[in-house]
Specification:
- The chain has 2 domains: 14-71, SH3 type barrels (Roll); 94-251, Porin (Beta Barrel).
- It is 6% helix and 50% strand.
- It has 1 helix and 14 strands, in the order αββββββββββββββ.
- Strands 7-8-9-10-11-12-13-14 form an 8-stranded antiparallel beta barrel. Strands 4-3-2-1-5-6 form a 6-stranded antiparallel sheet, with no helix packed on it.
- The longest helix has 15 residues, at 2-16.
- The radius of gyration is 35 Å and the shape is rod-shaped.
- The protein starts with a helix and ends with a strand.
Length: 252
């Protein structure tokens, strides 16, 4: 009789000493909470020797034996936490661009820029096909005695790299700066070959259609490696070089 009374009085306390899981369906489970993950609850039922995996979407509340409670609600989507300086997956990481105004100085330029994971640094690689615009866009003559330059046939190639550092700004605009290097042959400059090193400052504008515009001013020097025999330029000398740049890009 005494044993029966002890069981009657002690049983409720044993149940209270266990962890409880309250399901959205209204059911309640007793046992031991093993661990919590992003989407699941590992729970050991009181009458089981094997840990069960419960979906958080089915659980409303977990109450531990010490009175601590966990309001579950629903499971979180599988996604890695984003740091403040990291681009989300929805933000474009690639820019495919064109410099349309280069046609007026004898250049057809395509550009690709890759933004690093922080979103603050972009590596841009341009490829320019150069031609002599005199005789194509501007009038030219074959008479060397006149002041109009003669057309130089052929195609040249200029390429290089830009390292752009972007400053945090608004959603539609931000400033950037960095070095830019170019090497190749410029047909408009009568076939001069050389390399150029500049430092540029610019502004990036972006609209809702994933179109981006880059406008920048660069200043530095150019080193001439090869000049035509008729040129008066000195290959041993460095020349100052200013550039105005405009690029329109599609962001992906």
């Amino acid at each position: 009789m005494r044993r029966l009374l002890c069981i009657v009085f002690i049983l409720p306390y044993l149940l209270m000493a266990q962890d409880k899981v309250f399901f959205k369906s209204g059911k309640t489970a007793f046992g031991t909470l093993v661990s919590l993950t992003t989407n699941d609850v590992f729970f050991l039922y009181k009458d089981s020797l094997e840990t069960s995996i419960l979906n958080k979407n089915e659980i409303l509340l977990i109450e531990k034996a010490n009175g601590e409670r966990f309001l579950i609600g629903q499971a979180k989507k599988n996604s890695k936490p984003l740091r403040a300086d990291t681009l989300s997956e929805s933000v474009a990481r690639n820019a495919f661009g064109l410099q349309p105004f280069g046609l007026f100085v004898g250049r057809i330029t395509f550009a690709y820029e890759r933004f690093l994971s922080t979103g603050k640094i972009g590596l841009m690689i341009p490829v320019s096909l150069t031609f002599d615009p005199f005789g194509v866009i501007y009038p030219a003559t074959n008479d060397s005695s006149s002041g109009t330059p003669q057309h130089i046939p052929g195609i040249g190639l200029i390429s290089g790299i830009d390292l752009n550092y972007y400053f945090k700004q608004g959603e539609s605009s931000r400033y950037f700066m960095g070095p830019r290097i170019r090497y190749g042959t410029d047909k408009m400059l009568r076939g001069i070959e050389g390399y150029c090193l500049q430092f540029q400052l610019g502004l990036q504008l972006q609209n809702r259609r994933n179109l981006s515009q880059h406008m920048s001013v660069g200043y530095g020097f150019v080193k001439i490696l090869n000049v035509p025999s008729s040129s008066t330029l000195n290959p041993e000398q460095l020349y100052g070089w200013l550039s105005l740049n405009y690029r329109i890009s599609l962001l992906k």
